[in-house]
Known about the structure:
Layout: H1 2-17, H2 25-43, H3 49-68, H4 73-78, H5 94-126
Helix pairs in contact: 1-2, 2-3, 2-5, 3-5
Amino acid sequence: MKPFNYCFFFLFVLFAAVQYNDPDPYIWVPIYLYSAALCFLAARRHFYPKAYAVGVIVYVLYALWLFFDKTGVLDWATEHKAENIAQSMKATKPWIEETREFFGLLILIAVLGYNWRYYLKRVKGSARPSL
């Protein structure tokens, strides 16, 4: 668990740092730093299930919004035939920017969900009566 969480802590801090040229860094820097902080704490064996729940719920809602937005993932997949989203780091088309953001949220959801599940299994395992 430690290497997993330290790895994602550093990745999420790096992701937050490169948001300076994003059209909406005031949204994405806190999103990535929130998950980075939770990963750092989990690496140090401090788990906060309510914080995981809040993060996952907010990220899922935002991902749904990005998916169904008029220039979102659905538009990218249907109208723009799943155009390459990695062609340039400077996203000049809104559907590329929103699709990248959507996949970033999926990574965040997966990591927080994994930590949340790990915590719940750990708590459930420690609650077993000894024979």
